[in-house]
Amino acid sequence: MSSSSQIFVSLVIPILNELENVHLLYQAVKEVLDTIDRPYEMIFVDDGSTDGTREVLRELASEDIRLKVILFRKNFGQSAAMAAGFRESRGRIVVAMDGDLQNDPKDIPRLLDKMEQGYDVVAGWRKNRKDRLIVRKIPSRIANKLICSVTDVKLHDTGCSLKAFRREVIDRIRLYGELHRFIPGLARVEGARISEIVVVHHPRRFGQSKYNLTRTFRVLMDLSSLNLFLKYLRNPMRFFGTIGGWMLTLGTVMGIYVIYGLWIKQVPVEYMNVLVTTVFLFWAVGIQFVLFGLVASLIVQTGTRRGSSLSPFLTFAESGIKEKISG
Amino acid sequence: MDNSSIKISILVSLYNFAENVQRLYDSLIQAVESYDCTFEIVCVDDGSQDDTLKQLLQLAKRDKRLRVIKMRDTFGESAALEAALRYSSGEKVVYLSGRVRVNPMTIPRMLQHLDDGYDLVMGWRYPRRDFLLNRAISWLFNRLASRLSKVRLHDINSGVFVAKRGVLERISIYGDLYNFIPVLASQQGYKITEIKVEQQSGAFRMSRYPNEYIQRFLDIITVFFLTRYSKKPIHLMGFFGALFFLAGFIIELYLGVYRLLFLGPIAGRPLLILGALLLVIGIQMITIGLLGEMIIFTHAGEIEEYNIEEVIN
Question: What is the pTM of this model?
Answer without folding.
Answer: 0.79
